[in-house]
Amino acid sequence: MKNTKKFLREHFPDSWSTTKLYTKIAVPVIIAAILFALNNFIDNFMVTTIDGGVAALSIANVYTALLTSVYVAISFISVSAFAQFYGKKDYKKARDTMKFRFMSAFIFAVIWTVIALIFPRQLVQLVSPGEREEVVVLAIEYIRYITIAWVLLSASFTYGSALREMGYGKLQMYNSIIILATNIIFNSIFIFALNMGVVGAAAASAIARVVAVLTNWGVMFWKNKHVIFNPIRLFVIDRHIWHIMKFRVLGGFLIAISQMTINLRTMLWNYGYPAGSVGSAQFNLSAASIIGITGSITAVFLSAINSINATTSVLVSQELGRNNIDVAKVNSRQLKGYNFVLGLVSASLLGLIVIILPYLGFLVRGQVENQRTINGDVAANLIQTQMLSEMQYTLLPIVFLMPTWLWFISSSNAIQSGKKNTLLSYVDFTANILQFIWLVIVNVVLARFFPDKLWLAVLVFYLSDIPKIFPYEYAYYKWNWATNITLDDKKTKVEKLKNEI
């Protein structure tokens, strides 16, 4: 009992003022993340009036998610350096870290765009083989235009992440309101007024990204123009930054692959449950038809995860940069409990959505109206019941696991705020590769014996998240991760950096 009390005391905020401090940083970031997630939800909702529109966006957005995985990996290897240098007020090196982040993200975005423009059909069919031609055509149209948003995302993601790490999440929240309003307005104009279909959704997303770049850059210039870099001097980066990044490149590569395995889950679900396998064959429902919508819903309620990076950067990384090691450790432990509570709140809200989901027929109206036109009212009612039921059951495991996700992600973010960054990438890579293999097994076995039970396969897959927590917790409590990496300068020996990173 004594040990339990001690554990709870150490792992939850020790005062109301501490809780308010954490909340002041976290809540604006959560709201901003919700608004960002709502952009994807709005796109999916707007195209529900188009038969196959949701499935098409779900397929195409796999590649948006894969590119985002690269951005996340770049952030993974650079976030501690940026936050520590910023906390130390070494703005030149913080700015040079920003250069590295943007340069890397932009290069990958251009490569991704070129591949997508040359091979759009092959990319669509790779993700969802056997998909009906109407959906394939819609997905190709969407990909051709969403590539503009991909390139712009390299800038908006870089500046948006930096704003959160600097502690300006509240201002980024205001930006997100403007961005969401832009997306809604132009989606409405392009899809409903101009009948542009999925192309309209892509065009609206691109315009929203332009607004995101301008507003995020504007806020950063206003609050601290010292971290704004001159594009002409993009490749002029301090040698110390190159040294840090050089020894973390392997870790970044592993994190990118690791994140991609998460985003490729949609592709595997489509292989296991292709068009016509979910429910009656006449409905032509695939995993994409269900997970495309539930994924958008889940993203809204997982927005609390975005706050972990912000609170860790401000309260752990910046303290490490100031050499306040003990303060950073205390904050990291208390943030674990705080984020766990955030997970409970988010899970409860998602649980309410799950309960009322059978009554939210507007989410699937495109497929319902298509069936009504082709096969009449009975078929329309059946497909609505089938889709909403599958969505309801596929969301249940997420409701129960969400608090534990926020707990161990807090551990992961704390570790990457100091040293052991590359070593952590091995843990993350191994855990997600094993989970990916488990998903392959689930799709091969359950899809064969329970071909019409997508929700059952999803439930069995998510059971793998339970053992996943243990390696992260071991690393958090056993590794000496809390280190000030800014103490190394140009004269520091490469070998010393190697040992610390």
Automatic annotation (TrEMBL):
PANTHER family: FMN_FAD EXPORTER YEEO-RELATED, MULTIDRUG RESISTANCE PROTEIN NORM-RELATED. The keyword Transmembrane applies. The keyword Membrane applies. Keywords: Membrane, Transmembrane, Transmembrane helix, Transport. GO terms for molecular function: antiporter activity; xenobiotic transmembrane transporter activity. One of its GO terms (cellular component) is plasma membrane. The chain crosses the membrane at residues 21-42, 62-82, 102-122, 142-162, 174-194, 200-222, 243-262, 282-305, 338-360, 391-409, 429-450. Belongs to the multi antimicrobial extrusion (MATE) (TC 2.A.66.1) family. Multidrug efflux pump. Pfam families: MatE (PF01554). This is Probable multidrug resistance protein NorM. It comes from the Bacteria. It comes from Mycoplasmopsis agassizii.
